[in-house]
């Protein structure tokens, strides 16, 4: 089977990382990635993935009529270029790696006549725009893949329900031995000027307001004022929007105002996520309505305990008190209480990390993701988008 992977941007964030990780394990499918020149294609080529270069496209959906019209015009042009490029490719399925890519891949489906699978990594918009997207998906998408129950529920309509398949992101098992973990702990703490005997909170993700890194800063500040020898590593960089650059400056200003800037490390983008998780004591995820949380499963795979907000797709991964700790978005007091509980109780911290690691091995392995993805491809290519068992198997989810 030949599958065209379509990504409308070459910037790399969670969706693109998931695409590359999954593609690397698909030994039984001929994959070709179509995307603009840039970081994504560079990474794809480095891992031996076949690529085709497309012209770039960048636009945001907007309620402003003029901006919306300009965005739609750009999408139409990009959609036509993609349809022309993929026509005659011999592909059995198009895997569009976002909602926007799905729309562009489907706009001129009469030209390429290849069934499209939309991979939904984000929460669908609400209101009229969301309704129009669902209507278009109902008319044009052969199948849709949702990365969490929350994303699936947000996209579900009467005409789409039987075409939505829940396939969680997967990750590879840890390859680190205890001596490797200890090496990472010493090396990274030395690099980031963090005392070896301190406790490190870690937050990883794009610097953007909805990720709420300010909550991690406030929590670390509160813990430090209680006398905890705690440091916070903020890993990530602002991308895509000017307001994200502004938000980074606001975070640095907040750290200064709270008097804890000497305990906070802004590292920028890093690709050594596994090593960072080994070097830290607790991973924080403070996002408002996180669609899935890839970094959560990556941390849990390394036995790093996680404290995360309880909205979006996180409850698919974490059962509170058993495989991680959950709190309500913006509730700094609860975040501080959970962090204190883990930092003060090493046995509990270790036990939570071990149970979290087992959870990932049981339910979020990359092998399971690949198997379910290939089932969706087969159904989309040869049938009506419905797998043989009517619905792609849902992996173990914390009730």
Describe this structure in words.
This protein is of the alpha/beta class and 399 residues long. The protein has two domains: 2-170 and 365-382, 3-Layer(aba) Sandwich (Rossmann fold), CATH 3.40.50; 178-363, 3-Layer(aba) Sandwich (Rossmann fold), CATH 3.40.50.2000. Helix content is 46%, strand content 15%. The chain has 16 helices and 13 strands. The chain has helices spanning 14-23, 39-46, 65-86, 99-106, 109-112, 127-140, 149-155, 178-191, 213-225, 242-257, 273-279, 294-301, 314-317, 332-344, 346-363, 366-382, and strands at 2-6, 30-36, 50-54, 93-96, 116-120, 143-146, 164-166, 199-204, 230-235, 264-268, 282-285, 306-309, 325-327. The strands form two sheets. It has a seven-stranded parallel β-sheet, with helices on both faces. A six-stranded parallel β-sheet has the order 10-9-8-11-12-13, with helices on both faces. Helix 13 (314-317) links the parallel strand 12 and strand 13 (325-327). Helix 12 packs across helix 15. The radius of gyration is 21 Å and the shape is globular. The relative contact order is 0.12. Mean pLDDT is 92; it is low at 387-399.
């Amino acid at each position: 089977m030949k599958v065209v992977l379509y990504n409308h941007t070459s910037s790399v964030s969670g969706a693109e990382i998931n695409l590359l990780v999954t593609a690397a394990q698909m030994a039984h499918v001929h994959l070709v990635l179509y995307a603009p020149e840039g970081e994504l294609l560079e990474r794809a080529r480095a891992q031996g993935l076949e690529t085709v270069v497309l012209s770039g496209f960048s636009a945001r959906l907007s309620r402003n009529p003029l901006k919306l019209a300009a965005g739609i015009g750009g999408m139409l042009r990009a959609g036509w270029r993609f349809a022309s490029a993929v026509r005659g490719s011999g592909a059995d399925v198009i895997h569009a790696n976002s909602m926007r890519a799905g729309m562009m891949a489907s706009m001129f489906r009469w030209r390429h006549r290849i069934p499209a699978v939309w991979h939904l990594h984000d929460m669908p918009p609400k209101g009229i725009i969301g309704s129009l997207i669902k209507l278009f998906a109902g008319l044009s998408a052969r199948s849709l893949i949702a990365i969490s129950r929350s994303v699936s529920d947000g996209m579900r309509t009467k005409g789409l329900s039987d075409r939505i398949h829940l396939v969680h992101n997967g990750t590879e098992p840890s390859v680190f031995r205890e001596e490797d973990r200890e090496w990472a702990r010493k090396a990274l703490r030395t690099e980031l000027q963090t005392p070896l005997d301190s406790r490190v909170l870690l937050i990883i993700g794009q610097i953007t307001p909805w990720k709420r890194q300010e909550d991690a800063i406030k929590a670390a500040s509160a813990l430090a004022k209680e006398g905890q020898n705690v440091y916070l590593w903020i890993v990530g960089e602002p991308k895509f929007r000017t307001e994200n650059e502004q938000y980074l400056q606001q975070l640095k200003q907040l750290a200064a105002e709270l008097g804890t800037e000497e305990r906070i490390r802004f590292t920028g983008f890093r690709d050594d996520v596994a090593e960072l998780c080994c070097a830290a004591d607790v991973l924080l995820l403070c996002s408002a309505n996180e669609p899935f949380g890839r970094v959560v499963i990556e941390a849990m795979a390394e036995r790093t305990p996680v404290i995360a907000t309880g909205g979006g797709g996180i409850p698919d991964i974490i059962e509170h008190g058993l495989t991680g700790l959950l709190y309500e978005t913006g509730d700094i007091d609860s975040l501080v209480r959970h962090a204190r509980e883990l930092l003060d109780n090493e046995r509990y911290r270790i036990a939570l990390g071990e149970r979290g690691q087992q959870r990932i091995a049981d339910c979020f392995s990359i092998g399971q993701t690949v198997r379910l993805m290939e089932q969706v491809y087969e159904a989309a290519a040869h049938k009506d988008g419905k797998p043989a068992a009517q619905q792609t198997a849902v992996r173990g989810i914390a009730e």
